[in-house]
Write a structure and sequence with these properties.
Radius of gyration: 24 Å
Strand content: 5-15%
CATH class of the largest domain: Mainly Alpha
Shape: globular
CATH topology of the largest domain: Triger factor/SurA peptide-binding fold
Distance between the termini: 31 Å
Order of helices and strands: HHEEHHHHHHHEHHEHEEHE
Structural class: alpha+beta
Length: 331
């Protein structure tokens, strides 16, 4: 969230939905509105811009997620404006010059990039202003005491700790409560099936097997049983690898509910049902890789970014239920 807009331009996706500029307002009737957020429009152009780097055959899949991301950002922008948080025009101008410099370093021209991104300079300035608004708000909330508390409670987020995991994903039908509950129940049955298979294997061990060897065998039985069920039942492409996801850090690689659940597990411990935007998961952690000692001062930039991400999630949870959101049919 706290990245300069040049980086977003390079990615081809603008972070903030923004509102129509005066130039756009003259042509609003010829440009479709994707959604209204408290009466303010998100233009279809913003979605087109965001979808440019995604293969055309996957647009229908990613469009809803991108639209909701833009809606969330507009809700935040509206909230900050109500609070009276404004971007300094001088800072906007300085950021714009940095954007131009980054584009030039990349071997392109400012005008060409704006054309490729279907963006006017007025829109870009508004995007920069929205990001500066957000940074100003984050800085107003994030004093050292708050950041230190966050650091001490989440050291594994910042010290490079990693876990290796497998998962089984079941995806219910959208907005179908019965399907949702059915898939959760199915995952619990699969969990019981895996545990029963492990117990069956352990029962075959010689009576005198020592504790260390028994735990070694339990780990192997658990991983083999989990991988077999994942290969058969999971709806994630990782099923071809028995649900194997490899190593990943506490933040930045997996969505928060998944990462939080995985890091709470001991090796070869099964999770309960974990729900994310992708569906319902059963997680098995197979290895933990400890991080290094790190001081608050060393970690502070990362702590601030993590704080900003959490603040964003918290704000959206507060703003969404109170907002009037109308999503138009894209057809």
């Amino acid at each position: 969230m706290r990245k300069i807009c040049a980086a977003l331009l390079a990615a081809g996706v603008m972070l903030w939905a923004g509102l129509p500029t005066n130039a756009q307002k003259k042509n609003t009737n010829t440009d479709k509105v994707a959604a209204y957020v408290n009466g303010q429009p998100i233009m279809e152009t913003a979605l087109t811009r965001a979808l440019r780097r995604i293969p055309a055959d996957k647009h229908d899949k990613f469009r809803p997620e991108l639209l909701h991301f833009l809606i969330d950002n507009l809700l935040i922008e509206q909230h900050l404006t109500r609070l009276g948080i404004q971007a300094d025009p001088k800072e906007v101008a300085e950021k714009l010059e940095k954007v131009k410099e980054e584009i030039k370093k990349g071997g392109s021209t400012y005008e060409k990039v704006l054309k490729e991104l279907l963006l006017t300079e007025a829109e870009l300035k508004q995007q920069i202003a929205a990001e500066l608004q957000w940074e100003k708000y984050v800085d107003s909330q994030a004093n050292d005491a708050v950041l230190r508390k966050l650091f001490n409670a989440n050291r594994d987020v910042f010290n490079g700790s990693m876990v290796r995991a497998r998962h089984i994903l079941l995806t219910p039908k959208k907005e179908d409560a019965k399907s949702d509950e059915a898939e959760k129940a199915r995952l619990l049955k699969l969990k019981a099936q895996i545990e029963a298979e492990v117990a069956k294997g352990l029962a075959k061990l010689p009576p005198g097997t020592d504790k260390l060897e028994r735990e070694k065998q339990r780990a192997k039985l658990m991983e083999d049983a989990f991988a077999a069920v994942a290969a058969k039942e999971s709806q994630c492409p990782s099923k071809s690898r028995g649900g194997e996801l490899g190593f990943f850090p506490r933040a930045g690689a997996m969505v928060e509910p998944f990462a939080s659940a995985a890091f709470a597990l001991k090796p070869y411990e099964l999770s309960d049902v974990v729900t994310t935007q992708f569906g319902h998961h059963l997680i098995l952690v197979t290895e933990r890789r400890p991080g290094k000692d790190i001081t608050f001062e060393e970690a502070k930039p990362g702590v601030l970014d993590y704080f900003a991400d959490q603040l964003r999630v918290s704000l959206i949870e507060q703003l969404r239920p109170k907002a009037k959101i109308v999503i138009n049919d894209p057809k």
